[in-house]
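User: Round two. Same drill as before: sequence, then structure, for each protein.

Assistant: Same drill it is. First protein:
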Amino acid sequence: MPFLKERNKVSRSRQLENLTRKNGLRHAIFNTVGDKYIGEWRNDFKTGKGALLTRYRQLYEGDFDEGYRHGFGVLAYELENKIFVLEYRGNWKRGRMHGFGLRRFRDGGVYIGDWKNGKRHGYGLMWYPNGDFYAGDWVKDKRQGLGMLVRPDVNRYEGSWYNDMKHGKGRFIHLTTGQMQQGVWIRDVCVYCTFIDIRYRQSAIRPTKYPIQKFRRNVSDITQPHHDDNFLLRWLRARSWDAEAAEKMLRQSMKWRQQWEVDGALKTWQPSETLLTYYPYGSTGVDKEDSPVVIVPFGGLDIVGMLHAVGRQDFIKMTIQVLEKYMQEAAERGVQKVSVIFDLEAFNLRQYAWRPAGEVIISLIQMYEANYPEILKTCYIINAPRVFAIAFNVIKRFLNEYTLGKMLIFKNDSKKWKKAILETIDPSNLPQHYGGNLTDPDGNPRCITRVNQGGKVPKHLYKRSFEQNPDSVTAKQYTTAVIKKGEKLLLDYIVADEGCFLKWEFRTESHDIRFGVTLKDADGNSTAVVPHKRVAAHQIDESGVVACQSPATYTVTFDNSYSLLRSKKLHYEILVTPPVEKMNILPQEDESIDEGVTSTAATTSVHNSV
């Protein structure tokens, strides 16, 4: 019966198809995209030994498996003169470099070591085109783990790496100068470091010169018995080992100390109750190298209230006393530096737009740089809001490179800044709020009994009148204008001197406004300083400041051209400050604390939108 006939297990068409499959050794196979392959096949896949020349003029010779480079093989690329140059020689897995291999990069670099999924991963050696050499651990094409980097001048770093940066414990050996820098690195910056001399320093190419004895003789008329070599080295380092510049700096600092009676009356000076209550600072211990840790909840500083309640002179004296206190504590512990946690939680930029407040902060920075060089080990600036970038762009011009190099700025991400802080400070010496274990007896995680949090100074403590309160909108402070629908308000400010700043503060009623600042230089070229965009000034006051170049004209634009239905009522204050070159931190007899900033006259015009 037909239905009882035994069927073939493989159809005739399938049998013919199998006969056409590529199996075994083939002389040459070309495909439609321009590749050429000579080698072994299995079931239509390149499998076994073979050579593949791609349309990109890359030649691979070695092992294949199911069409992939798999096993051991050599990859080369063709130059314009038809010569093939080695690119990779080593192990492969499913088409990617995997295992041990050597690769020559087209920029001249060479790597020998472990690979994983096409990336350097494991232990390997890397010769860079610029002459650097690295031997150590890799993770996904990044130097990570333990490794050694040797520079072309034979100076080298040995220690921990993370994400292609020096990070963790390590040492940098300066063979050219005969010194070794040892400590802790964070993101390529040495934050806890000590310098020691190598035994063969005098045989180095450029041995570091220590003019200590000569420097000590030159300043012997102003130094005191407790000013040891470590003290003198601070001034030499601050002036790049220029003994004359260091002597000048030290003499100026000693005059400053006499002027403020730092070593005399200031030691017994008693701050007022207002300062003791509202000046934000404190300490709960030391770091892992026994240096004092100072915590500054700067966001809690009411600078406007402070200047009205105690005055500028007492505020500066309090700052000097705090600096001297922790320098004395460091000296008693046998160290020279302090670590700082600078907390910007609740930071308000608006109060620093008031000229006396901004000037006193800049004056304190200048005072610190001139009289306390090389004392900062690390400064963790945490909880930095977006507006802090505006303030930092202003103050960083008054900081030297050493101080800037010690600053680590973190946004409001406690996981990141707590991890960084705990790398150098033990939890037993930190409040729980900053990642430690300490709390007050009542369980407060900020340890407010040891770290003063600052706060708003009550107005009944004010000793000086302040006719114009920066927290209120008055006719004396703000100019009011109505910008009609479809129109713009343009304010032109001419800046003739270097060191000026353009400041603004404004608000609108009920609706937003488009705001921007442009600059026109002496050649007539226009540049956007603040990009024009819509801001919700009806919800929160807008304020800002930019450093000005000169000569130039700055145009502040309030744009309502996009609105076809509504006019906008605007209250604004815009001013150009006088040049900020050198500020005297001594109060002037004829200067009142409530002296405001006089606005530079602006040429105002209203334009219809095109």
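Second protein:
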Amino acid sequence: MVDFPGYSLPGAAASFLFVLLTMKQSEHFRVIGPAHGILARVGEDALLTCQLFPKRSAEHMEVRWYRSEPGTHVLLAHQDGAEVSEVQTEEYRGRVEWVEDDLAEGSVALKMHNIRPSDDGQYWCRFQEGHYCGETSLLLQVAGLGSAPHIHMAGSMEGEIQLVCTAEGWFPEPRVHWEDSRGERLLTLYEHHIPDEDGLFHVEATLVVRIASADTVSCSIHNPVLAEEKGAVLSIPEKLQTELASLKVIGPSQPLLVRVGEDIQLTCCLSPEANAQSMEVRWVRARRYPAVYVYMDGDHVSAEQMAEYRGRTVLVTDAISEGRLTLQIHDARTSDDGQYRCLFEKDGVYQENTLDVKIVGLGSSPRITAEGPVDGEMRLLCSSAGWFPQPRVQWRDPEGKPVPSFSQALAQGSDGLFQVEAFLQVTNSSAGNVTCSVSNPLLGEERMATFFLSDSRMTFSWKILFLLGLPVVVVVGLIQMKSFSKVNETLDPNTAHPELTPLEGRKRGTHGQSCNQTSHRDLTAYSVLQARRENRDLESGNTGPSLSNKQGNGNLIRLTMEGFTSGRCYWEVDTEGTDEWTLGIFEEPADSGGLQFRVLEKKGCDYRALTCCLQAISLAERLLIEKCPQKIVIFLDCEDGDISFYNMTAGTHIFSFTQPSFSGSLCPFKLESVELSPSAQY
């Protein structure tokens, strides 16, 4: 082995490897493109270029132009002097071409014809040689200078004039501004940019001016990319002298009720009568464009029609010389529901009228199916489909009295029609029947079905789920309860509060029963003699103690004689016409401790939920109740440790007290003048 002074073998190997890497790196390249974005107008051609650096031949490389990924959205691929057409994206076929540039110097170009708004964005130029590739991005900015604006003026109303500036064919979204005759900017009331099928924007800008100060106004539309604009000027005094300024458009004063599948008849006419043959007449929804239907120069302008109305509209022009036109919309759909505007326009002045269309659908007859019985309970399902708008569902017992659903679900199909499902829980089935009715709130029509139960004794106990506000299967409120029985205890005249008086004609039950052992028909209803209490309070000047004021319980009125330690029950309490009240449930602990109160309190318009004893408040939560309850239901579930309050006026949950368990006997009570509803018989 030969040694070289000052060099070692490992050092020589490292130097040799560095030389190889340097030589390999020198064979690599970079791709460069234009320093600035490429600007192209809609309908014109654009040239995209890129270049290898340092310059070298690209004749044997693959060159590819693409948008997002090299393997997708490919504009053009070129390899070994030929185009690779099988990888080209469909929307670019016939619109792009390879421009023979100086491949020997690594320079390539791509020409794109008939530029569209969808072509706006970033592009990539990619060179690949073997396993090595380089690429660069280019920004193509597309701009379209649309039509000159046109100013439409509505006939004067209450001293004001509404002006609408419209234009089409702009890209990207333009800027709109109004100016008066002195060149001062005016505040735009509304501005809308609506893309058409080609991606170009239709512009609508609305201005309201007072007639007293009305003179000349101008509307300008500016393209931010091209820095160019177009404008229009309108002389208001001159337009006020035209024919239409003195006319009105009238139509139906009441909403049009149209069943799904039938035809809609939208009739508008000029008042006083005037020939509308030379006028532009359009029916629109929220905006002028796109329209439901446009009549202009004696013909239908299909280019401005909304896609969902194409092939469904016919214009009846028999009385056009009298200024009367009717638009027929065939095969009414739920999406046709809402407001329409009818506009007559001539010489830049228009008058309009609004028509209200209510689409209604009377669904199928309800179908009732049963599940069970399981553990003595039967579950009934009432289902019906084809309704619009949202239907109302109601269960009724054998006596025709309303029964709340166990749960209710609403679903809206792709056709906009609603399907409803309502459940009812029935226990201890006996002879009788239940009825489910589904009604349309606009038609005042309903469909009904009846289900006949078996022959043993029947009582209803309900598991209540309030499913509120279901626009498209959206559950706003959910309150879940167990099985409850409505309780009305027998009063003992010797122990009950003197203001609680038994109602006559009811059977008396035994004392000390748990909630779930109490039969509806074996209980006596009772009421509070509200007038007696109010008279006594007026004479004494006493307004009744409030738990929140930590006062004594001398005026506390028990609503049952015996407390409850098990079961599930509820009480209905009428609060109509009472400005202040406190009601709830108090607990008498088994260890002889002080009373514990869980109550709902009302003082004027303020509501609170309180947990307290006679000496201190452990919880005080303010509640927002928008609709003053006329009747409140108190639910007690001893097993689940739940005390809940419900506003039966609005059908909503108010508040719940929950805890693992109760330690003593529970008894409902009230302070102030309230009336306990009589027992409902089922």
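DSSP finds three helices and 50 strands in the chain.

User: Perfect.
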